[in-house]
């Protein structure tokens, strides 16, 4: 392993065009490719707790590629370059570092909100549930001494939305607040089922995702997925609640199994009653708001009026902060 002299860390958010950098980052993605001339290159996504940046290696590709893998912490010597209004690192040297020498929190983003405060607020909503069976089911999970600390750390996704420490809790709380308002506006809705859906729809991600080292899928997550894991959790907990109605268990499971909304989005069932439909709708809304806000916030660093083309949303976005501009 090559040895680079240790220097103070330069954070992703502080990187400037044409700057020479020597710093450490977490490898979030690593891909090898071949250019038009037949010469190999390596593309990386590197990150810390302030954001991510693309990296490119054009020389000594085979040698450097053997030194590290996705999930490693590496020290790089590089220059910052702006390409298509986006900063990237052109890397000339790489040395893998021992993860034990660093705090993982240095490399993984965290929610801007306190997990303890979010959880306390979520418990207030949970205790508002009127149906005793649903309430006992929800509280048996939130108060489980094994599950509670997991909720403080878990992301809501590997990369797309709320992909940071505490992201799952932030996503759940955001959805339950939206559903509370909608249940007050549409008085024909069963609020208890909406609250259940907000809390349980992604609860399986506590086991689907690995988040002690870096965000990735567990073997169980790849083989079974978070919906089936959540349904197993419903069975496990409801079986300990005397008199839990079998039909209510099916209703709860349907909310989980249909919350992606469409078969092509990964749901084995489409929503078949209005509360399930609304949970799926608001989950999609909150996920998109998080994804879009993160994208626009990162794009504003380019000092351009418009974003790059966004493949997920299939459009360009205006980068003006309209809340500030027209307040």
Structural features, described:
The protein is built from twelve helices and seven strands. The protein is α+β, with helices and mostly antiparallel strands and 327 residues long. The protein has two domains: 94 residues, Nucleic acid-binding proteins (OB fold (Dihydrolipoamide Acetyltransferase, E2P), Beta Barrel); 184 residues. It has a five-stranded mixed β-barrel.
Rg measurement, Å? 22 Å
Number of domains: 2
- DSSP summary: helix tally: 12
User: For the terminal residues, how far apart are their CA atoms?
Assistant: 55 Å
Strand content of the residues, in percent? Answer: 15-25%
**Portion of residues in helices?**
25-40%
Largest sheet: 5 strands, mixed, barrel
Extended strand count: 7
Nearest-integer average pLDDT: 89
The backbone outline, from C-alpha atoms, is elongated
Classification by helices and strands: alpha+beta
- List low-pLDDT spans: 1-5
Order of SSEs: EEEHEEHHHHHHEEHHHHH
Can you list the strand order of the major beta sheet?
1-2-3-5-4
SSE layout and pairing:
Layout: E1 20-34, E2 40-48, E3 51-57, H1 61-65, E4 73-83, E5 86-97, H2 115-126, H3 132-142, H4 147-153, H5 167-185, H6 191-200, H7 205-208, E6 209-210, E7 216-217, H8 219-223, H9 226-238, H10 246-257, H11 274-299, H12 322-325
Parallel strand pairs: 3-5
Antiparallel strand pairs: 1-2, 1-4, 2-3, 4-5, 6-7
Helix pairs in contact: 2-5, 5-6, 5-11, 6-11, 9-10
């Amino acid at each position: 392993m090559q040895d680079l002299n240790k220097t103070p860390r330069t954070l992703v958010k502080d990187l400037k065009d044409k700057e020479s950098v020597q710093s450490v980052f977490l490898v979030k993605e690593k891909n090898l490719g071949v250019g038009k001339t037949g010469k190999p290159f390596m593309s990386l996504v590197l990150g810390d707790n302030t954001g991510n940046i693309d990296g490119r290696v054009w020389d000594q590709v085979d040698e450097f590629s053997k030194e590290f893998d996705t999930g490693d912490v590496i020290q790089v010597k590089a220059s910052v370059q702006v390409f298509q209004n986006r900063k990237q690192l052109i890397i000339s040297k790489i040395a893998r570092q021992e993860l034990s020498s660093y705090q993982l929190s240095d490399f993984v983003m965290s929610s801007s909100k306190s997990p303890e405060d979010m959880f306390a607020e979520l418990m207030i909503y949970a205790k508002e549930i009127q149906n005793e069976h649903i309430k006992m089911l929800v509280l048996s999970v939130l108060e489980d001494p094994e599950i509670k600390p997991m909720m403080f750390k878990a992301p809501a996704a590997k990369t797309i939305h709320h992909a940071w420490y505490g992201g799952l809790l932030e996503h759940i709380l955001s959805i339950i607040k939206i559903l509370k308002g909608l249940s007050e506006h549409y008085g024909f809705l069963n609020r208890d089922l909406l609250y259940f859906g907000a809390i349980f729809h992604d609860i399986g991600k506590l086991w689907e995702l690995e988040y002690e080292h870096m965000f990735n899928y567990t073997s169980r997550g790849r083989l079974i997925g978070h919906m089936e894991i959540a349904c197993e959790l419903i069975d496990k907990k409801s079986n300990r609640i005397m008199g839990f109605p079998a039909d209510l268990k099916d209703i709860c499971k349907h909310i989980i199994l249909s919350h992606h909304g469409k078969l092509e989005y990964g749901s084995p069932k489409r929503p078949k009653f209005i509360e399930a439909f609304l949970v799926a709708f608001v989950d999609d809304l909150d996920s998109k708001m998080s994804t879009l806000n993160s994208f626009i916030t990162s794009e504003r660093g380019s000092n351009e009026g418009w974003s790059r083309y966004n493949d997920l949303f299939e459009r360009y976005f205006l980068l003006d902060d309209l809340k500030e501009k027209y307040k």
